[in-house]
Amino acid sequence: MIHTVPDFIIDARTCASISGVSKGSKVPSLLVTPATCCQSHTQTTSQRPLNAIAPHIVYLILIMSQHGLKAGGKTPKNAVHGSRKKSNLIEMRKKTTEGFAEILKLDVQHDLTNQMQPYLKFLNQKGDSDQNILHYIIGDVPKFQADDEMSEESFEDCGQSGQLNESLEDALEGFEESDYDQSMPHRRLFEWVVMKCVERLTEPNDSSLTPMQYAISSGRLQVVDWFQKLLLPDKTLKGLEPVSCASLQSKDCSFRLDPVFTEQIQLANHPSDHSSAPSGKNEVCAHKMLATAPGELDKIKSRNETIAKTLVDLMEKSKLLHLLLKDSQVDSNLATFESLVDWCCQEKEEPQEGVHSTQELNPHKPTELNQPLPVKTQPHLYLLEKRDEKGETLLHSAVSRFNQAESAMDPLQNLVRMIELLLEKHPQGIYSLIKNVTPYQVLIMGCMVGTPSPERRSVEEMFKECCIGNIGQKGKTRKTRRQRLDYLYPDKRKERNIEFDLSAVREPITAEWLDHLDFCNIQYETVLEYLRLPPVPSAQKHSSSASVTQSNIFDRQGYSDVYASVFEWLKGKGIWKIFRVRVDDICPRPHGDSFIEAALSGFQLDEFDWRKLDIGSDTIINGAPDVKILNLYWSGSRSVLQGWACEDGLCRLENLEKINLIIYMGNDREEALNQYVESFIQRLTNRKPGLQIFPRRVSLDTEGNNKDHGKGLGGSSGRPQHLWLSEMDGFNLSLDNYTFKDANNKRIVPEVRVALIDDGVSIDHGVEDLNTSRQNGSNNGGRSYRSKYKVAGGTSFYESTLEDSEFRQYFVGPGGHGNTMADFINRVCPNVRLFAIRVNDAGRNTTGARFTVKSCAEAITWAVETCKADIISMSWSFQSDAQAKINPDDVQLFREAIGKAIAQKKILFASLHDQGSTLDYKTFLPMGIQGVIRIGSSTSYGKPSDMNSDGSIEFALPGEKVENHASGKEVTGSSVATAIAAGLGALIIYCADVAKALGIDVRRDPRDMETMRLAFTKMVPAEQPKCPTPYTVFPKVMPLDKGAEKAKEELQRIMINLGF
């Protein structure tokens, strides 16, 4: 009798209500709702309560449980058929799993191809848990502990039983543990199967994991190393093409493939007779092997594409590179990590459609006409930018892992290598952010208290090198100097200089001169973008004749070593890397080759540009062995070119990529010179393929005359000098010579900071002995003040718009205007701490503008936030209306910077525009901003200058034909008056600080803008509005010879007169 099953929907919880079924029993494949248990007995059979039809239901349930029936009216016959099918599947998978186990017992060291023949049918089948052969091999791979030894727990966690290792137990007797890789047999099988049936890589198991995903999820990352080594680079695939065979050119072809690849090619040549198949040794080149196996090259390419896709999938979805970094076995993952990163950065040449060129790609190897230009791409580079589940980039993860390892006292060498590799291959990653934090900041924040480890210092230097050198940054992605400084120094107070440029210095650069860089607290990074030194000045040359001419440039009678102190000074600062070195050394007596070699030793250089004629090959090789770009200066001698191109010449520079050959016309004819150059290029490029050489000719540049960049400078006209300046000189000298002490007999040294925003201040203003003026006193040519001083520090916002243009530090030229302003500030207040801030005047010669408004805003911000200046002196102005054609955003940025300075109670002095009274001063900035003290110039008779309108200025100070005693010249303009006002303001603050320290009641804050206005107003006489006369408040000299009390009384009188 055939029983059909009603379409009941039964809940398992109702099973206990069925008569004859014990509580907790399960009903196969039937679901019954609790509602059906509450129906009345009068309902139809299909709707009656279960207890009413319990005997029948129990019978049916027993039948279904025995035959595997499902609800829905299936007959026992169908149930028997489905059960047999399922049983057959189980049996087949059981046999497949047994086959997999037999495969793992094979002796992989001997003729694996023949041994695999009986088991080939299992390669296309699945065993338990839907695992294919690759899943099974990977599951048998042992997991290694931290000490690389197998433990009992790891052996049990292999997924199967580690039986492949057991089968080789006897063979391992007598071997040291370190001599045997326990995973080697698994690797051999894994490689063989992938080569034979690569499609197994894409098959998931019952957990939806492909074999490689299973390897990663189970922690068997060593399998990844085996796998990625099966991926052939594009260059190798291209080399497998028959046209690449060297035998076509009657040469021996040495192109060979690894046996793991040749084995499959040989197997394809002997598909039926496996016993006679070659052993996998590659006696012949790969091209000949592929020629005997038609279609095998296409199979290799197809298999390679599958492997590549699988690898991409692992790095995209499984975050493989992140796992290798974070794995506890990071040391053993280094080789795999390196290979994967190299593969991600692999370049691929693709033709650029629609773009052709008749020009030479290489200057010495012309391309065919209209040949498409190849474009090099890195299609997998984006994989290095993938982030993990926390949003971290690879570099963030590597640095975080480094910090953790350092704190745990773990070995760091391999982590250092991983970070180095990421910086080398993907330098753009240093600017990636996670929560506005860069990898470099993560490194700095992870620094432990105490002395940094050598590994940490090494990693920090790598980041600096990558950032300062703009490595990997091209075109619009190149970072400006300011962007790089912001990256390295979020705290601007810790900024260091990333270049050493003295090219505009006209004075002798001696050891004493360099010492003043230390005094001014000028700090340099250990990595410099470039170093540039000017021609040796006349005073430092051995010959009195310093002019460079065509006749004497080739007549070298001796060598100079005047820059020895410079290079020793740099080495003493710990500088080890200089990207570009440029020394202008074309002069009658240049530095000798031995000196150049010794000077550059110890520095790592990328570009060598020592401008000396015919420099020797050994000098370059020994002094700059790692150089990539070489600038050679040639006098026309044929023997010099032959020496550079010979076997012992420049071809020994392993990293050399480019040579710029600068040709100075010699005595030979032009035609002969061209032949020499062509021969040189051919010989050197033959010895060093790929080297680019670019010859160009230049005219000999004679030594230029120094130009004076100051404006309004001239000889003394004998006009009356400004009375109050000469009167103040005596007071300043006496104040400078006296030491004040407080009640505890402690020296009082007030610090008044003045920020001079201008075109820089030359460092030579501080090289004269400070005692000179004190020793000479009033007999010093009628000058009773200190004419030389030292700049306390500064910064520069010089930023050239020209590519590869060099930076100008604040103390390196032109400095004409800034020097003059600094002279007057120091003259009025000799104890001031002066900070020179250079604005961006890079476009002075190209656009005509003196500076950029944006750099002025940046300078003000630096003066307020970093310098902590009390006074900001701005001896300049610019027109801000529509006619000025200035970027409105820059003007707004400038206004905001001024506003912040005023909000922080900084005292700002700004000069009048000096363009007459017809222009509205409110259209000029910064003087047009409310809160800035507007300064105009006055005549030597103490009257406002005619160029000043009555309503445009607040105060007028000396500004017409004022003698600058430091230079002996006269200057004119409101800019001079503004510098004098800043010096006077500094003097007032200095005296107020001394008075407070002496116990004098100073009721007003001298560093407040309104207090300073009041002090200036107190010094203005009724008969000359707006023209302060400080000599009415300050005495000619301080009564220091009458004792400290008398000096204190004089200071108290000064404070009262100033309204304090």
UniProtKB/TrEMBL annotation:
Coiled-coil annotated spans: none
Domain of life: Eukaryota
Chain intervals for the UniProt region annotation (Disordered): 351-373
Annotated SUPFAM superfamilies: Subtilisin-like
GO MF, one example: serine-type endopeptidase activity
Pfam families (UniProt xref): Peptidase_S8
Domain Peptidase S8/S53 residue range list: 752-989
GO biological process: proteolysis
Source lineage: Eukaryota, Fungi, Dikarya, Ascomycota, Pezizomycotina
Taxonomic source organism: Glarea lozoyensis (strain ATCC 20868 / MF5171)
Protein name: Subtilisin-like protein
InterPro entries given in the database record: Peptidase_S8/S53_dom (IPR000209), Peptidase_S8/S53_dom_sf (IPR036852), Peptidase_S8_Asp-AS (IPR023827)
UniProt keyword Hydrolase, yes or no: yes
Keyword list, A-Z: Hydrolase
